[in-house]
Design a protein that fits this description.
With 168 residues, this protein is an alpha+beta fold. The protein has helices at 128-144, 149-166, and strands at 8-18, 21-28, 37-44, 50-60, 63-71, 78-85, 93-101, 108-111.
């Protein structure tokens, strides 16, 4: 059993939900194994939850196919990481596959490493006063664009100084 994540082929890999059971099938392209065998598949979910299920690994001309089924009610909403163990005394080996569960939506199989980046926090919306000042600045720039640059800069500084005194 390899100690690193096995490569997963896209065309033959899928996850779906039928009759209250989540089925996961992974095409392990570089999984060196001697033939059909029973494995244990562990799904690690949100907040440290984990679910173990029996699975099978069967040889194909293009590599090995792992298939496992888990009752859908055991998987809460979220992304579940998939790991394999080929014998009771072996360690679980993580794969680069995750199953995204969101009731009542369909199941999604996510392949590849877990992203390390996150989305930036949402920008705070501007207050009404900030919107007015922003729009006024654009209008001022447009009006001053017909003046020579030195005169426009002086006028802009004067207007900003007055605006800071008038606006809180």
């Amino acid at each position: 059993m390899p100690t690193k994540a096995p490569n997963i082929g896209l065309p033959l890999s899928y996850a779906n939900r039928k009759a209250g059971v989540v089925h996961v099938r992974l095409h392990l392209t570089d999984f060196a194994d001697d033939g059909p065998r029973q494995v244990t598949v562990r799904a690690r979910g949100p907040k440290g939850a984990s679910v173990d299920a029996p699975g099978t690994v069967e040889p194909t001309p293009a590599g090995q196919i792992m298939h496992a089924s888990v009752p859908a009610d055991q998987l809460s909403a979220g992304a579940w990481r998939i790991a394999l163990r080929v014998s009771p005394d072996a360690r679980f080996v993580d794969t680069d596959a995750r199953v995204l569960v969101a009731d009542p939506n369909p199941i999604a199989l996510l392949l590849g490493p877990i992203p390390t980046s996150t989305l930036p926090p949402p920008r705070r919306s501007r207050s009404t006063q900030q919107k007015i000042v922003h729009s006024g600045g654009h209008l001022l720039d447009r009006a001053l664009s017909v003046l020579p640059p030195v005169t426009a800069d002086r006028s802009r500084e004067t207007v900003r100084r007055v605006a800071r005194r008038v606006l809180p």
